[in-house]
Amino acid sequence: MLTAFARAFRTPDLRKKLLFTLGIIALFRFGSQIPAPGVDLTAVNKCLAPALQDNQLFALVNLFSGGALLQLSIFALGIMPYITASIIIQLLTVVIPRFEALKKEGQAGQAKLTQYTRYLTVALAVLQSTGIIATARAGQLFPNCPENVIYSDVGVFGTIVMVFVMTAGTAIIMWLGELITDRGVGNGMSLLIFTSIAAGFPASLWAIKEGSQYGDGWPVFFAVIGIGLLIVAAVVFVEQAQRRIPVQYAKRMIGRRMYGGSSTYIPLKVNQAGVIPVIFASSLLYIPALVVNLMGQDRPKWATWIERYFVQADHPVYMAAYFVLIIFFTFFYVAITFNPQEVADNMKKYGGFIPGIRAGRPTAEYLDYILTRLTWPGSLYLALVSLIPMIALSVIPQANQNFPFGGTSILIIVGVGLETVKQIESQLQQRNYEGFLR
């Protein structure tokens, strides 16, 4: 990976793209530190440190915003509204025939779906910013902190301005991501997510060192670093693992020319669903915490039971539910994103077949069988990696639930890193080929 970046910096046009990407990332992190109008930054800083040790309701969104959410900055929502909108649009393509037709239209249809995603992102940003500001004004954003993080003289107009600023911040983040995609290196939205998550790594590691109960904390610090490197190596290995289904295309005579006769393969990844099942499971398990927080102190017995078993991330019942939900959502997401029957029909249409398997329905059944066998280890892998922060929380009390080497953070960072390196190597190979032709 380091070799690829070194070679890219020695190539003039790639060096410009890398520097442009780094400049956009720096601008993004700068905006994450600017507080929104009406926010008492002093009170936020007083409430922030103790809040990070608890099971926060907005922990997932705060992770994707790089800590900007709990600081109530202009980029407080981060990229989370766009992620949610993208997932919703992707799921709707299976349900709504119009969206499914747009998906099959190629680049023009994809541009239309992207436009719908932007509109939905803005709508979700308005809803989320309104909810966050209302929660902060009610004192529920930092439940154990008596400070008012929003000035008391902020009225209705000031609240509207705060909602507008946070929504505009989300729109700017979308624009910055598209700039990276068009003029930089890698996928812009993915890199911004990568930046937000990586920004919390130093603070999380230092908190483990400072809060250690074993001497000066350095042995625990380096032990966590060593375990983290092993986890990263294992995640890289599984993320690159795939089952290649061989496909042979028969020769066809069209006019006076012979077409086909080539061999290729269908790459089926072990982790076909990516990090989406983890996001789904985390979002679903935040609903009980939301219900409990909205009830206040006078809660019925069933709410107390929910608080006991489904709010604390290190509780065995919570971990078991999280484990089962990730496996369920992995199979669910793979089922709606990969259609074996459609793949089999396309292969039959263009004269392709799997050696030893008849075209048509037998091919679809064979692909479904292979996909199911791959999804089981992939779902177990996702569930185990996602439980690492919760296990660390029970073993190392000073490691909050956003423990850096595990869960959503490590899956996204490794995935985005591998994708970016592959794009850089692809562009380097293309330029080497162009230089050879010259």
Automatic annotation (TrEMBL):
The chain crosses the membrane at residues 68-95, 116-136, 156-177, 189-208, 220-238, 275-296, 316-338, 380-397. InterPro entries: SecY (IPR026593), SecY/SEC61-alpha (IPR002208), SecY_CS (IPR030659), SecY_dom_sf (IPR023201). One of its GO terms (cellular component) is plasma membrane. It is found in: Cell membrane; Membrane. One of its GO terms (biological process) is intracellular protein transmembrane transport. Keywords: Cell membrane, Membrane, Protein transport, Translocation, Transmembrane, Transmembrane helix, Transport. Pfam families: SecY. The keyword Chloroplast does not apply. PROSITE patterns: SECY_1, SECY_2. It is a multi-pass membrane protein. HAMAP family: SecY. Belongs to the SecY/SEC61-alpha family. The central subunit of the protein translocation channel SecYEG. Consists of two halves formed by TMs 1-5 and 6-10. These two domains form a lateral gate at the front which open onto the bilayer between TMs 2 and 7, and are clamped together by SecE at the back. The channel is closed by both a pore ring composed of hydrophobic SecY resides and a short helix (helix 2A) on the extracellular side of the membrane which forms a plug. The plug probably moves laterally to allow the channel to open. The ring and the pore may move independently. Component of the Sec protein translocase complex. Heterotrimer consisting of SecY, SecE and SecG subunits. The heterotrimers can form oligomers, although 1 heterotrimer is thought to be able to translocate proteins. Interacts with the ribosome. Interacts with SecDF, and other proteins may be involved. Interacts with SecA. This is Protein translocase subunit SecY. It comes from Carbonactinospora thermoautotrophica. The lineage of its organism: Bacteria, Bacillati, Actinomycetota, Actinomycetes, Kitasatosporales. The gene is secY.
